[in-house]
Each structure stands twice: as structure tokens, then as C-alpha cells.
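ok, trying the design again with the full structure, not the truncated one.
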């Protein structure tokens, strides 16, 4: 059997208690690897050096609608990695609601830690080890939470609006978003005139461009304004621009006096006609066409808002609209066209339906594989639009776009480190958007820097730590309440993205200069933070929480704080293993490697609880909320491989039981990121049909008319559906996992192909080790594949039960098929 990545400790999973195991709630079943096998090939997998692999690529696709948006979750998103817009496409009024990644309230603070936390941590540990959970919980709630005074949130910006003259009802309306070009467009006929509008956000020129045209000279007119925002500020006009100057101030998550200064400039250039100032707006009359350029500048990181806005306006309009448009399309296509997915064409009558109608059909139980392929590419599109190499900040809870609901809720539009921020970037490496992770790496470096003081002051430990949430200012203290705020491995979890980036590209310079310093600091903290559990001498972390779940202690108390939560164990094992592997590869820190090896031998094994489930805590506690949305302990299955259906089948089955029990519990908290989670979980369990079921539910039940995902109202305190980016990225990652998996030693073709996708192809998916794969299948079986190497490598390629050893030189491609 080939080597598995990240084995759990050897031996059968065990329980801490010596009491006999209770009978499972239901009869035991075969592990996933037996119940849901990938069909064994009827012929052996072979390499064909001269095989003619047809590379037929399908464009990413287009979303289209037959009416204007009347709600935010019907509008179409554009973005350049920093500046975003939601295009509504109205005929009487066009609304482009703006957002910008650095438009943050709040500010940095050195007083966010509880001054009594460090003194109380040892006492809380003693109480938990002694079984005095209620008192430990009380002390934790009193002493451990962070004390943020001006944490802040990313805030929505005002809208750029176009008010058009009254006219007869519009006819022949069409609104589109072309994922290949990144162009949002609107066309309609009104009063015998064809009106056309094109909107895009360009990364090369750092602005949003809007072009308005008609097919009758002199028939274009509108009033241009910047308004309907909640931020304090003033709007002025020049002969060609509308300018908003204000501050990102609010009082829910900050003190109302801290936040970035910002400016929005909307410059109008008209072909023909006349432009007049109209108070705080501009009026255009009798033009043939017009272009409006929108830029935003803030003073985040010491920048000058006006200077930035003016420099962007100097470059873009000077180049001219056609040059700006061409540069945008070339830049956008260079990323989007790297990967193609074909799951079959929709019948003509279905293909002719608007995107929202097709989503409604899917929700009614009717299959639409072409829509799923579009959704896959849409997740890639949103990643490209929201996070670029030069973005100052990574994708927040709402990505780049901001509906104003998260920022006005208790949880804020920030960076959640207990699932959401990680999930935002799950699709980046496998779908060949590696450079889109760059702003995340910048955030990690800031967290490692700021988190050193938190580690020392709160825990007396070296290295660095970050907990559940962070902001634009590098917040690393615990969250402001127990039950969610004491996720001690949040930063370590996020740091795994650095290693994933290295695994896919094998860039040792990146590993040495950027990844390893952060990972080493995380490992140093965990080595110092872990303590010996008195009953078995195991190394465990705590006091901490399994995000964001609660358990029932033996005394009946409802608790969140514990010692040795499984999620902590998963990420400690991951960080220590990765740090040691990196140090060995780089020839550094021999003493640290020795300490890591000793610590790893003392980590608790993963265990199966009384219901046949994977235990979430060190002891087999009952869940206080069996329907809870978080399953952080299943991170052992994904993104980690400490559980695999071939290597640890009993644990794989226990992970599946965990999912089943969550869904069957009354009040199950179904959200967008949970459906994305379950998609990748079942892909890792080699159960393609279950993965597809959850992917379909993600689109049908947790995505809106514009296919953007939402966190459902009524869950986690949300009063209504709130847009959240993570579901889109997680769904795209789920499709990639169904079609290709890799662990650095082995590449598996079609590991979780659903029976509902009998024919198809994917081109351009990436595998760890510097590999790119194209795969084609027919009648549910592999037809042909091609593996390309960016570096010399030796790898095993798997299809079903067949394994093939492959050696590739740098730049070499090898075709594979069933011989």
C-alpha cells in the first residue's frame, strides 16, 4: 500500500476512560472506503508518452438575468482585489454599491488582553483536570476573553448612482456577468433606442469603469451622484467629478472616533452633450456615450486618500477606455482561463433560462450539471475579483463585497479564524489561483508579529498566537466572549495555508523566507503552551474551545472551555509535523526538530466515542447542542489527512457518523460554509454521490439568485440571510476534490466522481508537487489524463485500485489511460 500522508498515531483508536464502550446508537456499517469505492479499472492504468490528449477547453460561462436587480443578492459583483462593486442594472436608476477592502472602522490597540488572564490560566487548567468544569468555566468567562475597545469592521461604502430620464417601460432586457472577461453588462430597448452599459473593475488600473452607450446619437442623459451611504462625510463636485470625502466611523464595533479616512472620486467623460453641476451631482444631457471612472483611496497603512485617488485617475483615463478595457480583459483571462470544467451541456430549453430560474429548477430537484460547472467557475471568479497579488488585505467574511448586514451584526465583517478565512482560500491552489493567496500571507506575517506579545503576556510562551478573530490592525487577543473566543489554534490553522502553497509549488525560497518563520513561531508557542494531562501523561492544550461548540460536563454543567480539544490536537500535530519537515528540508533548527519529535509521540490519539462518532473533546462528552454547525474536529479529515478512508477506515467511518448525527439532530444549523465543508469531507471519504448532494444543497439552499452564498437567518444570531463568501470558495474547492486529490506523494484521478456525472472533463487542476492535471472520463470511467510537471518529480498516480509510478522531468507532460 502506498504511504498515507499524516497518519494518526498507530494502533486502534482508543478512549481515555477504561470503562467499556457503550453500544453504538445504530448497527455498525462498513467504512466509507468499502461502502463507496471508486470503481476498479477494468484495465490497468498505463502511461502513453505519445498519446494524443485532446485539450478541449470550455469558456468559464456567463450569468444572465432578464430583469434588473431589486435586492443586493440579485446584483452582480465586480472587483479588482481591492475595490468592489455590486451592479444592479436598473433602467430608471443604476446602482453600483461600492466596497473597499481597507475601509475599516476601529484601529490598532495594545490594551486588548485581559490583565488577569495569565495568572488564571494555570488555575483553570487545574480545575479542568480535576473535573471541576463549572468553576473553570466561570473563571474563564471572567478572566480570559479579550477586551477590544475599537476592534472595528469593514464597512460598506456609498453607491455610485445614475438617474435616467423618465421613459416608457424597457423591453428586450438582458443583464449579464461574463466570467471569462469580468465584464458586467446591461442592454435594453426603451422608446425605440437601444441602451447599453458595461461595468468592470480592473486590477491593472485600480478602478471601476462604467461605459454607457446608445444606438441613437445625442440620446444619452443621466444624473451622476455618490450617495446613500452610512458613513459621515461630504459630497462635492467639480466640472467633471463627484467626490465623497469621509471616514469609516461607527459605534457598534468601535468607539465612533477611529477608522480610515477615505475619498471616492467618480469622474465623468462624455462624448458629446453637456455636463452641468447639480448640487452634489452632475447632470449629463444629449450625449452620444459616456464613461465614468470610479476610484477609492483610504489612509490605511499611512496612505494619502486623495493622492491615491488622483494618481489612479491620472493613469486610467489618460490611457483611454479601450486600453483600460483591453488591459483588464487580458489580466482577468490570464487567471480565469487556466482551468476548464465540462460536465456536459444543458438542453437548449434549460440553457435558454436565466440563471436565477436555473437555480430555482435545481432547488426543485431537477439536475443541471452545467449550472454546477458554472458555479465552480464562479467561485474562481470571485476569488480573482476579491483577492489579488497586490491586494492590501485578504478576503474578509464577505470577501471583498459588503452588504452592510455583517458589519451591523454582532459578529462583524472581519477575518474569522475558526473556519471562514481558511475556507475563503481552499480553492486557490487546486484551481490554479496561487497568487491570489498573497494578501493572506501578508496578514499571517502581521499576526505572527503582533501575536508574539499576546503569547508572552497571556501565556508566558514564546512564538506567536492568534485566536478566533482578527481585523485590519492585526488583533490577536481572544474574542470578547467564551463559547467562541478561546480558539487558541486559530492562527495555527490559518498558517497551514502557507504550507499548502509550498506543497503545490515547492518554492524553497518562499518556504525559507516567508512560510517557515511563521510556522516555526506557531510551533514554538504550541510546544510551550501544551501541558501534561495527569491521567495518561499526554500532551494537551488548554484552556481552549472547540469552535464554537459546547459540551455537557459530568456534573451536568454546560461548558465550552476544556483541555485537549480534538481540533487543537489536529492543528498541533499539523504545525509540528510541518515545522519539522520544513526545518529538515532547509537544514535548520536540529534541536527544535528533536523537541517536536518527542512532543508528537505524546499527542493524544484520535478517538471514537460512544455513538460511533469522532470525539470532539479529550473525553467522550455529550454535546450541549447536537445540531451545532461547527465540526472543527473533522479538520483531521480535511484540510488535514490525519484521517483517510484507506489508512484509518474506522476513524473515517467515525467522521461520517459525526456528520450524520449533526444533520439528524433537531434544529440542525445548515449554513453555506457547512454545506461546503460536507462537500469536501465526503470527497475525502471517496463518496462522490454524497459530496454532490451537499454541493447541490449549497447551490439550491444556501446560494441566492446571483449565486452568492449566504449564512441563513436564524443561525448564529443572524436576523436575516447575510452574504458570506466562504460557501462560494468552499463549493469550488469541493468540486476540485471530487475530481483530483493529491498529498505530495500520490495523485488520485477521479477519487469521488459522482454517478450523476457520467461524462466530462477538467483541464488545469493542480496537484501537490508542482503538477497540473487534465482528466477526461466517459460512462463514469477514466478515459484519458495528462500530467504536467513544473519541476522534476517522482509521483504515484492512482485510479481506483490501480497505481502507477511516474517519473517526470521539469516541463515534461505524460499522457495516461487504461491500457
Amino acid at each position: 500500500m502506498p504511504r498515507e500522508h499524516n497518519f494518526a498515531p498507530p494502533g486502534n483508536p482508543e478512549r481515555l476512560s477504561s470503562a467499556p464502550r457503550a453500544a453504538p446508537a445504530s448497527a455498525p456499517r462498513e467504512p466509507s472506503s468499502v461502502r463507496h469505492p471508486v470503481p476498479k479499472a477494468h484495465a490497468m492504468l498505463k502511461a502513453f508518452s505519445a498519446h494524443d490528449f485532446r485539450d478541449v477547453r470550455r469558456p468559464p460561462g456567463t450569468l444572465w438575468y432578464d430583469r434588473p436587480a431589486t435586492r443586493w443578492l440579485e446584483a452582480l459583483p465586480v472587483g479588482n482585489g481591492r475595490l468592489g462593486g455590486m451592479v444592479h442594472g436598473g433602467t430608471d436608476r443604476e446602482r453600483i454599491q461600492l466596497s473597499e477592502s481597507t475601509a475599516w472602522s476601529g484601529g490598532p490597540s495594545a490594551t486588548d488582553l485581559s490583565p488577569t488572564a495569565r495568572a488564571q490560566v494555570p488555575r483553570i487548567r487545574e480545575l479542568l483536570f480535576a473535573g471541576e468544569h463549572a468553576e473553570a468555566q466561570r473563571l474563564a468567562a471572567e478572566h480570559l476573553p479579550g477586551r477590544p475597545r475599537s476592534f472595528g469592521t469593514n464597512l460598506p461604502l456609498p453607491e455610485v448612482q445614475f438617474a435616467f430620464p423618465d421613459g416608457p417601460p424597457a423591453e428586450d432586457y438582458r443583464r449579464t456577468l461574463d466570467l471569462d472577461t469580468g465584464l458586467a453588462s446591461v442592454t435594453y430597448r426603451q422608446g425605440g433606442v437601444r441602451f447599453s452599459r458595461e461595468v468592470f473593475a480592473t486590477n491593472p488600473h485600480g478602478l471601476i469603469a462604467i461605459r454607457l452607450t446608445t444606438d441613437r446619437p445625442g440620446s444619452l442623459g443621466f444624473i451622476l451622484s455618490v450617495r446613500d451611504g452610512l458613513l459621515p462625510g461630504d459630497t462635492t463636485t467639480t466640472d467633471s467629478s463627484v467626490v465623497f470625502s469621509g471616514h469609516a466611523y461607527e459605534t457598534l464595533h468601535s468607539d465612533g472616533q477611529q477608522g480610515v479616512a477615505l475619498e471616492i472620486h467618480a469622474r465623468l467623460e462624455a462624448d458629446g452633450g453637456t455636463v452641468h453641476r447639480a448640487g452634489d451631482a452632475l447632470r449629463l444631457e444629449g450625449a452620444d456615450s459616456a464613461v465614468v471612472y470610479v476610484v477609492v483611496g483610504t489612509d490605511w497603512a499611512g496612505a494619502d486618500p486623495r493622492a491615491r485617488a488622483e494618481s489612479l485617475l491620472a493613469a486610467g483615463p489618460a490611457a483611454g477606455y479601450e486600453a483600460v478595457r483591453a488591459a483588464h480583459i487580458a489580466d482577468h483571462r490570464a487567471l480565469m482561463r487556466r482551468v476548464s470544467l465540462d460536465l456536459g451541456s444543458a438542453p437548449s430549453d434549460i440553457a435558454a433560462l436565466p440563471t436565477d430560474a436555473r437555480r430555482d429548477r435545481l432547488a426543485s430537484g431537477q439536475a443541471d450539471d452545467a449550472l454546477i460547472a458554472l458555479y465552480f467557475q464562479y467561485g474562481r471568479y470571485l476569488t480573482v475579483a476579491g483577492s489579488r497579488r497586490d491586494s492590501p488585505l485578504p478576503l474578509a467574511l464577505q470577501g471583498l463585497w459588503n452588504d452592510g448586514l455583517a458589519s451591523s451584526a454582532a459578529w462583524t465583517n472581519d477575518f474569522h479564524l475558526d473556519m471562514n478565512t481558511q475556507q475563503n482560500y481552499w480553492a486557490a491552489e487546486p484551481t490554479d489561483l496561487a497568487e491570489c493567496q498573497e494578501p493572506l500571507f501578508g496578514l499571517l506575517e502581521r499576526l505572527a508579529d503582533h501575536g508574539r506579545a499576546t503569547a508572552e503576556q497571556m501565556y508566558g510562551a514564546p512564538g506567536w498566537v492568534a485566536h478566533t478573530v482578527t481585523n485590519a490592525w492585526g488583533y490577536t487577543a481572544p474574542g470578547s466572549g467564551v463559547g467562541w473566543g478561546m480558539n487558541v489554534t486559530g492562527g495555527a490553522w490559518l498558517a497551514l495555508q502557507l504550507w499548502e502553497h509550498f506543497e503545490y509549488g515547492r518554492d524553497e525560497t518562499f518556504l525559507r523566507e516567508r512560510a517557515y518563520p511563521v510556522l516555526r513561531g506557531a510551533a514554538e508557542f504550541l510546544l510551550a503552551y501544551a501541558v501534561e494531562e495527569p491521567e495518561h501523561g499526554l500532551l494537551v492544550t488548554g484552556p481552549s474551545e472547540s469552535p464554537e461548540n459546547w459540551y455537557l460536563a459530568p456534573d451536568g454543567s454546560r461548558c465550552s472551555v476544556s483541555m485537549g480539544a480534538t481540533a487543537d490536537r489536529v492543528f498541533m500535530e499539523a504545525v509540528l509535523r510541518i515545522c519539522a519537515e520544513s526545518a529538515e528540508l532547509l537544514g535548520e533548527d536540529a534541536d527544535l526538530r528533536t523537541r517536536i519529535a518527542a512532543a508528537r509521540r505524546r499527542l493524544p490519539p484520535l478517538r471514537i466515542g460512544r455513538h460511533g462518532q469522532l470525539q470532539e473533546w479529550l473525553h467522550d462528552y455529550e454535546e450541549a447542542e447536537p445540531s451545532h454547525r461547527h465540526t472543527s474536529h473533522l479538520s483531521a479529515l480535511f484540510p488535514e489527512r490525519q484521517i483517510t478512508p484507506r489508512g484509518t477506515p474506522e476513524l473515517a467511518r467515525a467522521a461520517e457518523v459525526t456528520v450524520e448525527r449533526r444533520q439528524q439532530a433537531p434544529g440542525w444549523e445548515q449554513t453555506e460554509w457547512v454545506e461546503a465543508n460536507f462537500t469536501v469531507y465526503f470527497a475525502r471519504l471517496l463518496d462522490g454521490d454524497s459530496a454532490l448532494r451537499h454541493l447541490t444543497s449549497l447551490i439550491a439552499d444556501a446560494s441566492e439568485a446571483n449565486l452568492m452564498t449566504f449564512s441563513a437567518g436564524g443561525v448564529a444570531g443572524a436576523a436575516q440571510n447575510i452574504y458570506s463568501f466562504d460557501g462560494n470558495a468552499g463549493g469550488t474547492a469541493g468540486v476540485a476534490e471530487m475530481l483530483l486529490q493529491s498529498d505530495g506523494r500520490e495523485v488520485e484521478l477521479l477519487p469521488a466522481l459522482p454517478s450523476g456525472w457520467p461524462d466530462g472533463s477538467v483541464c488545469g487542476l493542480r496537484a501537490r508537487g508542482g503538477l497540473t492535471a487534465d482528466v477526461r472520463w466517459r460512462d463514469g470511467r477514466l478515459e484519458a489524463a495528462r500530467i504536467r510537471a513544473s519541476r522534476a518529480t517522482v509521483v504515484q498516480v492512482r485510479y481506483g485500485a490501480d497505481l502507477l509510478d511516474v517519473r517526470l522531468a521539469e516541463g515534461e507532460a505524460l499522457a495516461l489511460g487504461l491500457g
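Keeping the full-length input from now on. The longest helix spans residues 438-459.
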